[in-house]
Amino acid sequence: MLARAKTQISLIAAIAVSLALQPAGACTGIMLKTADGSFVHGRTVEFGVAIDSSIAVIPRGHAFVGKTPRGDGLAYAAKYAAVGAVAFTDVKLLDGLNEQGLAVGSFYFPGFATYAPVTQANQTKGLSPGDFPNWLLTQFASVGEVRGAIERGEAVITPTVIDHWGPEAPPFHYVVYDKTGASIAIEPVGGGLVIHDNPLGVMTNSPSFDWHMTNLRNYITLNPLNAPPLKIDGESFAQLGQGSGMFGLPGDFTPPSRFVRAAFFSKTAIPARTAQGGVEQVFHILNNFDIPVGVSREVGDGVVHTDYTLLTIARDPQSLRYYYKSYGDQTIRMVDLKQLDLNAREIKLVSTSQQQPIVDMTAAVK
Question: What are phi and psi of 11, to 5 degrees?
Answer without folding.
Answer: -65, -45
